[in-house]
Amino acid sequence: METIKLDVTQGVYDSAKAARAAKRVPMVYYGKGVENTNFSADYQAFRRAYKTAGKSTIIMLVNEKKEEFPVLVHEMQYHPVTDEIWHVDLVAVDMNKPITTSIPFKFAGIAPAVKELGGTFVHSKDSIRVECLPKDLIHELEVDIAGLADFHSQIKVKDIKVPAGYKVLDNPEINVCTVTAPRKEEEIAVAAAVPEGGAAPAEGTAPAAGAKKEEAAAPEKKGKK
User: Fold this and answer.
1) Based on the number of CB atoms within 10 Å of its own CB, is 35 exposed (0-12), middle (13-18) or buried (19 or more)?
2) C-alpha–C-alpha distance, residues 64 and 37, integer Å
3) Which of the given ranges, 51-60, 145-154, 184-193, has the highest pLDDT on average?
4) At which of 140, 157, 180 does a domain end?
5) How far from the centroid of its chain's Cα atoms is residue 209's Cα?
6) Is residue 57 in a domain?
């Protein structure tokens, strides 16, 4: 497991506002069997740590007393205008007990159905849910798409190779990725002809050319005098 350390302060700032004013990120640390604790970290240092760890890799907090707190980033709040990181929730991790988390996919390789047949690569999942010991966590899981040879090929959860010690929690039959066939020219032409919110004209018919004219009323018959 890659060790990502982050220096934090504990109890130095009396409010989240004060921490932000000092260009630090306020964080709350919580979890089963631990006391909720407020930390703060240098803004740029936290950004670098999170860029490497994401939500699937352990970050080791180190306070002023050199005490260590293994955590996972659980949730992040952003400023609604500036989009700066505003607050972070950290979950305490027991390094001796399995945890449940999602590992993001990294799709690698070239699908023959894309290169040779002109198809489009599509994926319906971007991560896999697993259970493992914290020491075995990885940042991402590589998925080789070289086996997608035609438009019937697909990679399912059961086809994903995971490291030893991992228990996959997702349904094994869920489709992860495939390659779709290119659209035919006539399909594109029909789609382009359909007005937004309308339906395609039936084959062999032409669209209406305007409002239907009312039929002339029959002349009124004159009665005999």
Assistant:
1) exposed
2) 14
3) 145-154
4) 180
5) 47
6) yes
User: Considering the entire predicted model, what is its pTM?
Assistant: 0.69
The rounded Cα 87 to chain-centroid distance in angstroms is 20
Domain that holds residue 13: 4-92
Given a contact cutoff of 8 angstroms between Cβ atoms, the answer to whether 144 and 105 are in contact is: no
Please state, for a pLDDT cut of 70, what percent of the chain lies above it.
81
Query: Does residue 30 share a domain with residue 11?
Result: yes
Cα four-point dihedral sign 137, 138, 140, 143 = negative
158: Cα separation from own chain's centroid: 20
* Type and span of the H or E element at 186: helix 185-193
151 and 180 in contact (C-beta within 8 Å)? yes
- Domain containing residue 30: CATH number: 2.40.240.10
**Phi, psi torsion values for 16, nearest 5 degrees:** -65, -35
